[in-house]
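I trust your eye. Have a critical look at both lines of this record:
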Amino acid sequence: MKMNPDLIRKILLLTEENTSYGEEYEFEDEALPIELENYSLDEIFYHVELCKKFDFLECFIYPHCIVLEDLTPQGHLFLSDIRDDLVWNKTKNIASKIGSFSITTLKEIAVQVVSQSINTFFNPK
């Protein structure tokens, strides 16, 4: 299955919005969160597993249920850089021009987009 960066971002945002210390977020294949309704069950389960393998997410994956526990420190850092829609769209645009949508590339581009925004803020033309 092809990795979908938009779905990874949605899963991270969903986790951040619906979990807190000691409070998990659980959903079943029959009652998907509205943010994920446009994706197949296979896509969702696969991408939650990817998030776990990338060390973005603490979760449990069962045959018909996903339990999101929390973002990891890596997940928080990545989401902090891609949370803003403008930054995310610029990141994807640059990735498209480069021809790489790997997580490593997306992370590096997002950091550069944010850095450029900081430089523009402190050094207006």
User: Anything to note?
Assistant: The chain has five helices and three strands. Residues 84-122 form one domain. The mean pLDDT is 92.
